[in-house]
Specification:
The chain is about 35% helix and about 40% strand. The protein has about 130 residues and is an alpha+beta fold.
């Protein structure tokens, strides 16, 4: 995986992936690096859950992750805790969704595993709806 981050007076910080995807970082309309990490963690996990429901994904009506985090007061201002509240609506088994969420945090979501291995406490909850 390669890429670059460039600063220009006109655009501020702009990231470019090796596949040519361009995104803003840390500007008026762009997230900070820590916001990107937090949202990347949630996205990584939600991708794992939806991929795990691939045979039932047509029955998922809605899926989101609400994220709440706490950061250290002193530099470096690392995450000390993260809570993710998953909200999944549709005709999918709650037991399966719970297993997929736990597997994501235990084995598959590299972003989240990187964060928790650095000492961040992680908790999660699930709200199911039809």
């Amino acid at each position: 995986m390669n890429g670059e981050v460039r600063w220009t007076e006109e655009d501020g910080y702009v990231g470019t992936t090796s596949k040519g995807k361009v995104f803003g970082i840390y500007g008026e309309s762009a997230p900070s690096p820590m916001e990107m990490v937090l949202h990347s963690h949630a996205a990584c996990s939600l991708i794992d859950v939806i991929d795990g429901l691939k045979d039932r994904s047509d029955k998922v009506e809605y899926a989101t992750v609400e994220i709440d985090s706490v950061r250290s007061e002193e530099s470096p201002r690392v995450f000390t805790s993260i809570n993710m509240n998953y909200i999944v609506k549709g005709d999918v088994p709650e037991k399966l969704v719970r297993r997929l969420i736990q597997s994501s945090h235990d084995r598959y979501c590299s972003v989240g595993i990187m964060i928790t291995r650095s000492g961040t406490a992680l908790t999660w909850t699930l709200e199911m709806g039809e």
